[in-house]
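Dear colleague,

Following up on Tuesday's group meeting, I ran the structure prediction for the four-component complex that the binding team flagged. I've pasted the input sequences exactly as they went in, so you can double-check that nothing got truncated or mislabelled along the way. The structure tokens for the whole assembly follow below. Feel free to forward this to whoever is handling the docking comparison.

Inputs:
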Amino acid sequence: MKNEMGKNIDTITEIRGFNRFYTNILGLLEKDLYGSGYSLSEARVLFEISKTENCTAVQLCNTLKMDRGYMSRIISKFEKNGLISRRESETDSRAFNIQLTAGGNRLFHELNERSNQQIEDLLLKLNEDEKLKLLKSMETVKKYLTKATANILIRPYKKSDISYVIDRQLSLYETERHFTSEVWKTYLKQGVLELLEKFDPRKDCMLILEYNANPAGCVAITHTDDDTAQYRYYFVEPELRGIGVGHRLLEEALSFCKEKKYRHIFLWTVSAQETARSLYSKAGFTLTESHENNDWGVPVTEEKWEKDL
Amino acid sequence: MKNEMGKNIDTITEIRGFNRFYTNILGLLEKDLYGSGYSLSEARVLFEISKTENCTAVQLCNTLKMDRGYMSRIISKFEKNGLISRRESETDSRAFNIQLTAGGNRLFHELNERSNQQIEDLLLKLNEDEKLKLLKSMETVKKYLTKATANILIRPYKKSDISYVIDRQLSLYETERHFTSEVWKTYLKQGVLELLEKFDPRKDCMLILEYNANPAGCVAITHTDDDTAQYRYYFVEPELRGIGVGHRLLEEALSFCKEKKYRHIFLWTVSAQETARSLYSKAGFTLTESHENNDWGVPVTEEKWEKDL
DNA sequence: CAAAACAGTTGACAAAGGCAACTTTCTATT
DNA sequence: AATAGAAAGTTGCCTTTGTCAACTGTTTTG
């Protein structure tokens, strides 16, 4: 039913019903933190610290949408309780990098255990088929609500993004592609640093994808010669995949190339990067070359894709 | 992946990820209440009052899982602000029935408008297909999580349940079946009251389905003669349908009949009650009679279903 | 009929968190 | 190179939100 203003009021009502429902569910689950001495907000911060390597307070504020003052106090409490350690950021002496101490990890795992147990108890009431459907549906809800609520921005890189671009890419390639060799790590780091040294704003660019004010993806264009651009360091955070932001990033990079009068663009990828490959193909790239490579810690087929502009 | 204890740790992790995600989403949406002068909890209470006819404070505490003291204060505030009126319950002079005043309704609609607008804005970013998938998935998540978390109890009726059984059934039949005639209303009320008058614990029973400590369904058995039971007043709250509780209620009633040595059971329903019909059929009832009835405000085909015990 | 359970209220108190001013550092602009 | 504006983080002040336990009066139950 659409009402006079063309609003899909039934859909809205259903979604709001779901939100009320989930408010209850979450309220129920939170109770479990009670004996721990930490609040839901604190547990969320702890969790976020544990999953974000080298995080800073602002980053935490952005992702958890919490007040800076409040965050500052939570972090102080954590430090006093020996859960985290801080060291001044190498790139910004206003900021601190936060990491869990052994004690922090212990608490983290303890809280995790509780939460896992709690969810497990719930799952006992469902059979395998129901669990599967539940999971699939949660995935779908997450995907579309991410799409609907995501605060996405694509902007030129800042000095402070570099460590993100390097560290995050190393970590993603390690967990997703099992690239573990030192050769690979050095190759990536050197590549990025070289890009910066030789950076020419008339021909090069490095774009950062921002999600809720935090970096969440990247792409760079470097010049091989005046007519030939290389497309590099392209990645998007897993949670943002499948909602079209990777495509936007690619488009931005291509439009930069056109603006800079490149005639030709190429990139190297590995054959297992299915989603990236299909994006390249859709954008008009064609596969022109491929060879085996055993230097990255796992054997891969590297592919060259090219496109005329 | 199952770990050494047989836990489905991946599923648990995914679900917890979804919970963290939704905590963020809800946090985002709550911000919208800010200017209203009412908190999220207050808004939830207001919403619950508006949707529950004749609700009491405990009921609200049960469904929203809030503290009694806190609830008491919220209700006082609402009354002081002219949003609700209270009158002593007819059946329990400790309790009050709460209803929205015109002013309460006004605020309620205002808050609704805001929330609707907010959701509508989100939906702009999705196409029709995505909206549909989102909705379907939310339905599924809700269904299975209801099943997994529901606190279900089936117990004999108490005096205080009677008004629920009558009012709720009238209201459900009106919205779902368009039974609107006074004849119908009187028929139902009289029927229930007569059941109580003639109630014989050796042959009759009335079972209440409880969901989170509130009544959420019913079934009654009355004796036609020593060998013949009639199955009546069978209904389950919409939000609890499809998760097997209706079936449990039916089973409880049948096992009561067996215990009381009935030889035969029958019931009347209307042909449009698809889900109930299929439950009856699965439980071994057979359709033995049917006729048209125009007395309930809408023409229906009434059906008699019977079963030997 | 007594004991236990229950609906609701109240006081005392703690936790949660918003807001704004302030310091120091960084970035952009001229 | 100078400077203004923005940003990271801290702190004080304050309100709101929520918990807990004791208390009154009523209902239910054995």
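The longest helix of chain B spans residues 9-30.

Cheers,
M.
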